[in-house]
Amino acid sequence: xxxxxxxxxxxxxxxxxxxxxxxxxxxxxxxxxxxxxxxxxxxxxxxxxxxxxxxxxxxxxxxxxxxxxxxxxxxxxxxxxxxxxxxxxxxxxxxxxxxxxxxxxxxxxxxxxxxxxxx
Length: 119
Known about the structure:
mainly alpha, 4 helices, globular
C-alpha cells in the first residue's frame, strides 16, 4: 500500500510531466518572445540551477540515488536552458523552450516509472 509521501511524489512528477508538455506545446504552436525584462529569465534560470545543485547535494531519505540524480540534473539542465534564452537569437528561443519541456517530460516519466516499480 503506497503511503501519502509516495502519492505526493507521484503527483509532483505528473505535474512536472504536464508542465513539460505545456512548454513543448507552446514552443510548437507560437513564437516565443523575450519578456520586457530579461533579468527575470536570468533570475529564474539561476534559481533553477541552484535548486538542482541543492537537490543533488542533499538527497532525500528512502529515495534511490538515481532518482535524486534525475531530479537534480533535470532542474539544472532546465535552469541552464532558461539562462541561455536571452543570449540566443529569437528564432532559437522556441527550440530552447521545447528542449526544456522535453527534459521535464522525461523526468516526469522516469519519476512515474519509479513510483510504479516501488509498488
